[in-house]
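Record passed on here:
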Amino acid sequence: MREVAFIQQNKDKWMEIEEVLSGKLQKNPDELSSLYINLINDLAYAQTYYGNSNTTRYLNFLSTSVFQKIYKTKRGTPDRLKHFFVEEVPLLMYEYRRYLWFAFGIFWVFVAIGVASAHFDDSFVRLILGNHYVDMTLRNIADGNAAGVYSDGSMLGSFVGITKNNLQVGMNMYMLGIFGGLGTLYVLLQNSIMLGSFQYFFHQQGALYESARAIWVHGAFEISGMIVEAAAGFILGASVLFPGTYSRLDALKIGFKNSFKIFLSVIPFTVVAGFLEGFVTRYANAMPLILNLLIVFGTLGFIFWYYAVYPYFVHSKHMKYATLPTT
């Protein structure tokens, strides 16, 4: 069936679903479930015959929205948080997976720029990190404690201050995406170049191993979360620049709603990163290496699984009941 004919055949049904989602039309849970089954049939058909067309993307969004409404209708408050992390966020990450990989790629490009800049310009690290921080770190390295900065201050005070700062950076990373993604790109540029030059600075001083053991105890959550926050910002920006079949205002509403949920999902990881930096990082070089590696690679593995792998399983679970309509 030609795509135009497919749209004409089903548009009344899809418009009815939009009215349900907007609250103009009321349906009971059983009727909602029936709508959802029919909709995923349409989505499966579109994915098979029309690829990544506007129709496919529209139906993917519509089916996700209907599923969320079903859960809101059938589930009570105690299950809402579980549903958010187990179903809702993974489905959104599958839908917007290209933005995650884009943010991941851009992050490493900017890190490489930071490394190259520090390599070819001895004054670059001081420009980025400031003279006070560099001089303090040099003294710590000379004293045999490359990560000594993380031992300063009380553990609770460090946890609160660091977490507050990281949440602010993450909020800026996300919200500045409203400017067509350019604000997100700028904040990601700042932080990625800082990371690259910072790590290369320790390499120049022969202290990369000691610093990495400490920094990545909390940095695995912190940096991974930053990449996801950047992806959320790019989603917000894309909704402004590329509204597709929606009006720009409607596209912005959808983009904000979905990207904000992704941003919210990062907050617990940001808090854990702050806890680790305040309470654990100061002991990183004293703990057994195996424990250090378990924390770092366990954290990276979990984040990668949750945001990049698990969404495929959740999507497959929701699609396996779809049957292709015959033509």
About this structure: The mean pLDDT is 87. The first helix runs from residue 3 to 22.
